[in-house]
Write a structure and sequence with these properties.
Elements lengths: L6 H4 L20 E3 L3 E11 L2 E16 L5 E7 L5 E5 H17 L7
Antiparallel strand pairs: 1-3, 2-3, 3-4, 4-5
This protein binds zinc ion.
Zinc ion (ZN) binds next to loops.
Length: 111
Amino acid sequence: MAGGATPETISQPCPSWCEREHAGAHADDLLHTGGGRFVDGVVGRWRSGEIQPEPVTLIVYLEQSLADKSLWLSLADAEGPLCLRLDMHTARSLVQALRVTLEVADLPISG
Ligand SMILES: [Zn+2]
């Protein structure tokens, strides 16, 4: 059992959004994990003095520690090491900043 978990902690009921099988074999089993929302898109990589477009698949999902109940929104590159784990306040602030920035570019998000 990783991280000092006990069978009791793993047997806690999952939140409705959790899709993880908590087998208890890995440290990640100590996280409730939601299903990923996949975003296929393009990122700009700085190379040779210019920004070059490159395809990317991003995944957005929820995680919650069984130990302290902290809730996180994770934004990860499906093919790379990038993973930003944001607390809920930061996630909401990021969404607001994205909305404002897109509005400045005359690309508002409706809804
Ligand atoms: Zn769970």
